[in-house]
Amino acid sequence: MTVAAPEPKVNMGNPVPRYDAVVKVTGRATYASDMPLANPAYAYLVTSAIAKGRVESFDLAGANRVRGVIDIVTHENGPKLKELKLYSNGGYAGTTIQPLRSADIAHDGQIIAVVIAESYEAAREAANRVKVSYTAVVPSATFDSPGTTTAAAKGQNSQFKEDPQVGNFAKAFEDAEVKLTASYDTPTQHHNPMELFSTSCAWIGDNLVIYEPSQYVYGLKNGVAEQLGIDADKVRVVNPYVGGGFGSRGSMTPRTAIIAAIARRLNRPIKLVPTRDQGFTIATYRAETRHEIKLGASRDGKLVALRHEGAEVSSRPDPYCVGGTKTTTRLYACPNVDSLVSIVRADRNTPGFMRSPPEVPYLFALESAMDELAVKLNMDPVELRRINDTTNEPIGGKPYTSRSLMACFDEAAKAFGWSQRSPEPKSMADGDWLIGYGCAATCYPTQMGPSAARVRLQRDGRTRVEIAGHEIGTGAYTIIAQTASERLGVPLEKVAVFVGDSELPPAPVAGGSNSTASTCSAVMMVCDQIRQRLFKAMMPNQSLTDRAKETVGIGQTPATRAAKSDRSLDLEKAFDALGAGVVEEYGEWKPEDAPPDSFQAMHSGHVRLVGGHSLKDKIAYAFGAEFVEVRVNRFTHEIRAPRLVGAFAAGRIMNPRTARSQLMGGLIWGMSSALLEATEIDQRTARYVNDNFADYLVPVNADVPGVEVILLSEQDDHINPAGAKGLGELANVGTNAAVCNAIYHATGQRIRKLPVRLENIE
Ligand code: MOS
């Protein structure tokens, strides 16, 4: 079946097919572990079977008898690496728990030994024969486990700067005509990208090449160099394709430097491909969260008081938290707001970014509570959002740069057929199936980071764009090529794009949905430098007007497309005037409000994104609305979600096809987080139980028969030169609440704990 590409509307680019489509569908895309290595040895990890305690001894006799074993590395003979620093404390690492440093075990599945052998099979066989004696201590698994400690996030996590507050919540809530207090829970989830957490390392003299799926090649390069105590210029990270990230590859995990150090010691390239279950404990994950929401409103639906209290689990040493109150306290107009985020320390691996990290759990709580409030008010939930829509965020009063929330609600409602809904719960059915309609809002901060690019234009129009961005399956190659093609007026097929290599000019982490805004803004700027050089060559005595910038030498820009047909002629004239074979420009772009040391941070892999509520005089978010139909079987309580409809506005849409694919993926993640995805933790042992694709449920096509994405036109000149708001994580937010709101409508049962399974329906 072929699906027609979406028609572009105002402020949208062409829906060109994926730049990397053919190599991907023909299996020719080289992922990190596909990279050829000369005479590699193979590594296999041995991971801890207990969550807390220490290794007393290893019995390696059986393992060493396996033919082909080269070395078994443990804390007793392991490489001496520098300490890890958490990325939020000026380091690169997603955890400070460093394996193989001592006998101590801080979490289940911690790396305790690495077996190196002539083949993968030999390494695996030997790893399975490693016998470990432990002294185990009873671990704290999660919320309510004995031995956990709880403290406010503010003050312990340097990324979490405020518990937003305004007005007098207590008094306003007390006096409110209508009140709601409700608690919500979200589960542990694991990223589970298709590509495993592989690492291949090869030394060429003093220089290290790392092939590893990464969402931040500059961070990984600098982080590994720091841990090994070598110059960052000696480390190169390469990954032209990344098989999904979901946040798991934004910060450095401990395995890479260990593998690099062993490769150096053995003077041999090493390839590590850990197993699916090891991925649950050697990388990060989304921690479980708890929320209490209090809403106070007037009878006519105006919010007068809002309080959001959240708690999140983290590891013993690392104060990771997502702190989504920065968003939930600013989404709706409300004069009296209070919030508090706490971190609960347990004996777990350190959590980290996962798919819209703050907004997914925190908006689940808020958007469920808004639906509950609408029921209390006997009001349409869309109207409740309209009444509380705002142009300025309520905490600091800053204006949203653009906000199409209600336009999204209206478009999605129309496409969904919301007006056919009879509001009474359990009032709609089809045979044995109760039907429910639900909706929710989404928003996601528009974030950006400093980014550099190098662009080379040849006389015949061939163009090469180099930028250390990342293709994690989102369409980065495609939109970077489109940006250069449009800006230089060269045909798309003449543009070659190079990403995923730390030898290229730096770009930020491919996270926080910033990549399009950051990389396209940099590429646009550098293409303009090329225009200026050509212009000066052709018209040395004229100063550069804006119009000239748009037209010089190049035919196929928006301004000149209609007027000029033979663009190659213009280019040749310009090159003749310049007297050069190629024009190459390098440039560094940084967003408004970026700190003064931004470029330095960019080169050393320390990019901090700016945007969202942290901008000085404004607040920038993308918005959307999701509508979901669920069907709940009266007898079996089976829950299906046959229709997901979302409308989204995210500034300039560079490519409606890739944008739709990302938003579709987001809607599916959101449904999945409502009904499927959860990591089960054994409360006694603090171990993940369902660490495989048979038991960790992810959606398949049959789970999502109908997904509709509507893109709204939106122009925002206050965010970045590309005019783009990120949308990779947008549709994932709120959809879980929309599903639960639909389940309430179908069954009359309000379920406040995710995921919702058939046993949760009474
Ligand atoms: Mo994402 S969780 O911003 O990689």
Automatic annotation (TrEMBL):
**What top-level branch of life does the organism fall under?**
Bacteria
Task: Kindly give the InterPro entries that the UniProt entry links to this protein.
Answer: Ald_Oxase/Xan_DH_a/b, Ald_Oxase/Xan_DH_a/b_sf, Ald_Oxase/xanthine_DH-like, AldOxase/xan_DH_MoCoBD1, AldOxase/xan_DH_MoCoBD2, AldOxase/xan_DH_Mopterin-bd_sf
Q: Could you list this entry's UniProt keywords, alphabetically sorted.
A: Molybdenum, Oxidoreductase
Q: Which residues form the Aldehyde oxidase/xanthine dehydrogenase a/b hammerhead domain?
A: 26-138
Q: Does the keyword Cytoplasm apply?
A: no
Keyword check for Oxidoreductase, yes or no: yes
Q: Which GO terms describe its molecular function?
A: iron ion binding; oxidoreductase activity
Pfam families assigned to the protein according to its UniProt record, in alphabetical order: Ald_Xan_dh_C, MoCoBD_1, MoCoBD_2
Xref: PANTHER family: ALDEHYDE OXIDASE 1-RELATED, XANTHINE DEHYDROGENASE
Query: In its UniProt entry, what is this protein called?
Result: Xanthine dehydrogenase family protein molybdopterin-binding subunit
Query: Which organism is this entry from?
Result: Bradyrhizobium hipponense
